[in-house]
């Protein structure tokens, strides 16, 4: 029996990558951008701000932390815009607030992602308690690539 394959439709159409400014997330972003360029995919870059992380800080310290978080998001947004201009990939930046697992899950579902890319956790306890990457893999909604 002969199989008819569709030409030009293989590969992911939409890739989601989570970035937070860490070394591994920036590697994941670079990997995702290269994959999106080669596959002609749309890239959705997600930065999750964690407002709960500022609870318990002194008011002045919380304000400084929020400002630093906002500046990081703006820097990442600028890097995505520069990458789009330089590589020609189709990319968009989403800054969202909340739990990284829930927000990446939500955005990936909203954009009908064909794959999710994240950096490996660098926290020692995640080997036992479960990292964002492991939780995303367990969700089982799309292939997850974990970049070291």
UniProtKB/TrEMBL annotation:
Entry-linked Gene3D superfamilies: HUPs
UniProt xrefs under InterPro entries: Rossmann-like_a/b/a_fold (IPR014729), UspA (IPR006016)
Highest taxon above the source species: Bacteria
Domain annotation UspA: ranges: 14-148
Family: Belongs to the universal stress protein A family.
UniProt protein name: Universal stress protein A
